[in-house]
Design goal:
The complex is a heterodimer of chains A (about 270) and B (about 230).
Chain A: H1 3-31, H2 40-59, H3 64-70, H4 74-96, H5 113-141, H6 151-178, H7 180-197, H8 209-215, H9 219-232, H10 243-266
Chain B: E1 2-13, E2 16-28, E3 33-38, H1 44-52, E4 59-64, E5 68-73, H2 85-95, H3 102-112, H4 127-141, E6 145-149, H5 157-169, E7 175-180, H6 183-189, E8 192-197, E9 200-203, H7 207-219
Parallel strand pairs in B: 3-7, 3-8, 5-6, 6-7
Antiparallel strand pairs in B: 1-2, 1-4, 8-9
The chains are: A mainly alpha (about 270), B alpha/beta (about 230).
Chain lengths: ~270, ~230
């Protein structure tokens, strides 16, 4: 290999090695080596989804007619809504604690704060995605929920959710870690607000016109609409998402996230 | 060779700026056994972190022409508490771009004498056990230069002798930077000695003079020293 190529490939290989080591470490510290160990990375979200399904089923038995009238599956509605909500929420939570729980490892020159952020994020995405695929596969095979109408659209929406979560996590995570006030605000209010503004549990078409305009400022609502459109097909006459709008937000948030993560990476809480 | 050139480090504290290192310069050549003596709070740990690259200096430059270990310390800094000894070994080997193999795992068992504790989380280890694990892992990764922060001062004589062997006889070309507040450890291992006091690193022509100077600053109260 010429030295020029090696000089480019080698850092990439080392970076891959570092992220791999960190992901393995993360799995080991979270779930240990015993019993089913690493399988928890997707069993955990899966079980949370199932728990939520039961909760919704009990809660909405009376109004379940609404969903039957619309001819959409409530089970599927909760499944895709909850997993996408969880991806955004967990990304923020996990990235806000990434540095604190790894600070002992900052003794090593080759480990940078961004490595901690990325390794946690990779694991989160892998868990949520595996869980989504497995649950969809089983529920569709068992005909509990109908098949996906437009798989490419749904896949693209899921991909946008991943991208947006990275941006949001990198932007908010370090800020929450740094500020006690923001941390309290996040845990007490924002995390619950996310439940509403993620767009997971409503269709924009259900809202009156003036509210539609407001919620469509939120990028998550666009992606949620896209995800539901992918799964159910076009139920309502107009579709309420704009791909350019989503991409613009994703790029802006990734950019701000990288800047913030870099800044706080350089200004870690100093120890004497 | 490692060239440390005019390093300063300032920390921001609640009571204002604190100058932890003040224009520190020295060079480590292949095979050097360097001792740095300093009392608590003299800036030893900060200097070690900067040499290893774990922290950045406020000003000055470092050129590293050889591979440098992380600061190996008594508490086992750089190890992860909830991982077992073996998993720590695997993790560190991976991030320092080494290969994990069975032979080395057997060696790790021999070197650390931790037995079945190697498979327990290191949060359950004593400081001596952690120091042994840290040292053994770093020796297996095979660095050119070892930064050892008091880690040799724990353990009994047998432990000391064993690691003397590893660090000297088996590693004649290896460089060592040994940091301690106890001069006897440094006497035993090092041939070039510096004294770090209030962030200022002083070189000495002869080890004898360094020990004499260190005795003096230890006996004089803080306020009288510049």
């Amino acid at each position: 290999m010429s030295s020029k190529i090696k000089g480019f490939v080698d850092p990439l290989r080392i970076q891959y090695q570092i992220l791999k080591a960190l992901v393995i470490r993360e799995v080991l510290t979270r779930w240990g080596r015993k019993n089913i160990a690493f399988l928890w990375f997707f069993l955990e979200p899966t079980m949370m989804v199932i728990g939520n399904e039961l909760f919704w089923l009990i809660k909405t038995t009376k109004s379940i007619d609404v969903y039957t009238q619309l001819n959409i599956s409530l089970t599927a509605f909760v499944l895709i809504g909850y997993l996408s909500l969880m991806l955004v929420r967990n990304s923020i939570n996990l990235l806000s604690q990434a540095i604190r729980s790894n600070s002992a490892l900052l003794q090593h020159r080759s480990l940078k704060p961004l490595d901690f952020y990325f390794s946690r994020f990779i694991l989160e995405v892998a868990g949520a995605s595996t869980s989504l695929i497995i649950l969809l596969f089983f529920l569709i095979s068992l005909t509990i929920i109908p098949p996906i109408k437009n798989p490419p659209l749904m896949l693209l929406a899921w991909y946008f959710f991943i991208w947006l979560s990275l941006g949001v996590g990198l932007t908010l995570g370090p800020l929450i870690a740094r500020s006690e006030a923001l941390s309290a605000l996040w845990r007490s209010t924002l995390v619950h607000l996310l439940f509403l503004i993620n767009g997971s549990f409503f269709f924009v078409a259900w809202l009156p016109d003036q509210y539609q305009k407001i919620v469509l400022w939120i990028p998550m609502v666009h992606i949620s609409e896209m995800l539901k459109n992918g799964y159910y097909g076009q139920i309502y006459q107009s579709s309420y998402y704009s791909i350019p709008y989503i991409i613009t937000w994703c790029i802006l948030l990734t950019f701000s996230g990288l800047l913030i993560a870099r800044y706080f990476g350089k200004h870690l809480p100093e120890r004497i | 060779m490692i060239k440390i050139n005019d390093i300063s480090k300032t920390y921001h504290t609640r009571s204002g700026r604190h100058l932890a290192l003040n224009n520190v310069s020295f060079t480590v050549n292949s095979g050097d056994k360097i001792g740095i003596l300093g009392r608590n709070g003299a800036g030893k740990s900060t200097l070690m972190k900067i040499i290893s690259g774990a922290e950045k200096a406020t000003s000055g430059t470092i050129t590293r022409g050889m591979s440098v270990s992380w600061p190996i310390s008594i508490g086992g800094g750089g190890l992860h508490g909830s991982l077992s000894g073996v998993d720590n070994y695997k993790f560190l080997t991976r991030i320092y771009d080494g290969r994990v193999d069975k032979e080395k795992l057997t060696l790790l068992k021999e070197m650390t004498e931790l037995g079945k504790y190697l498979h327990e989380p290191i949060a359950t280890y004593s400081s001596g056990m952690r120091a042994r694990l840290s040292l053994a892992i770093s020796l297996l990764i095979d660095f050119d230069c070892y930064i050892i922060d008091e880690a040799l001062s724990v353990g009994d004589n047998r432990f000391q002798e064993k690691y003397n062997d590893y660090l000297h006889i088996k590693n004649d070309k290896k460089s060592i930077i040994l940091v301690s507040h106890i001069d006897s450890h440094i006497k035993q291992h090092c041939d070039r000695i510096y004294v770090l006091e209030r962030g200022i690193l002083s070189p000495f022509d002869e080890p004898r003079l360094a020990f004499k100077f260190y005795e003096k600053i230890k006996s004089v109260s803080n306020l009288n020293i510049i």
